[in-house]
Amino acid sequence: MSTPPPPRSTDREFGIPFPGTVLDPAGWSQTALKEMPADGRLSWPTLFGRTAPVVLDLGCGNGRYAIGSAVARPDHDHLGVDVLPVVIRYARKRGNQRGLTNLKFAVLGGFDLLERFVEPGSVAEIHCYHPQPYYDPALVHRRLITPQFLALVHRSLVPGGLFVIQTDNPGYWAYIRKVVPVFFEFAERPGRWPDAPKGRTRREIIATKRGLPVFRGSGIAKVNLSAADAVAMAEKLPPPTFDADRRLRELDQLG
Asked: What is the per-residue burial (b if ≥16 Cβ within 10 Å, else e) of 96-126?
């Protein structure tokens, strides 16, 4: 009888190693968050079995960033959500194979997660990489980054919590630069993330390989801005009705 091959230490995406090590099945974990609370909000200590800083990845795709962060920061707990079940299946599989107990994935939209299930002031970091720009004018109301969403992000973060945003869509970035600083002490990042110079996400890898600029930034939640004031300010700001530039549609479908 032949000896089965050892587990792979890594798997690759576009030739770039995916974070973490694939373990023997005996060491796999369960990263699926299959049901949200029927009434009320998530309890992070109940979900993860401990008290630790919580990191949210909204629109997590196949989980490259959330998994990489969970591997690199075992002292942080992570939740990744996406509206597409197929990408969450990939994310869960890879998270399970790496035995990550500080990571969960769920099929859910980022706005719904923050509005319905996240306790105010309970999250250390919220990351949003390459939100869908929607090219059809009839669908622009689905864009995630709105003033109302940013008010929810601000509400969900601990005082001084971190918000990270990234896109390769120039129209989206122009809008982000106008509205995010209302709620956060915001700074654009001129270069790549040092922890993942080839890309934190699948989409970033694709854009980089095609020579497209990637716009990155992060902000600290303004501590002198109350939740009520944030909501009031959001109502005065314009919605994201920018032109997303249809020439980027093909790339968006790939990412």
From this structure: bbbbbebbbbbbbbbbebbeebbeeebbbbb
Count of CA atoms in the C-beta half-sphere (13 A) of 132 = 20
Choose the CATH number for 52-254 among 3.40.50.150, 3.40.50.1010, 3.30.530.80, 3.90.420.10: 3.40.50.150
pLDDT band at 1 (very low <50, low <70, confident <90, very high): very low
- Percentage of the chain exceeding pLDDT 70: 92
Confidence of residue 54 (pLDDT cuts 50, 70, 90): very high
pLDDT digits (tens, 9 = 90+) for 124-154: 999 999 999 999 889 999 999 999 999 999 9
Domain map of the chain by residue range? 52-254
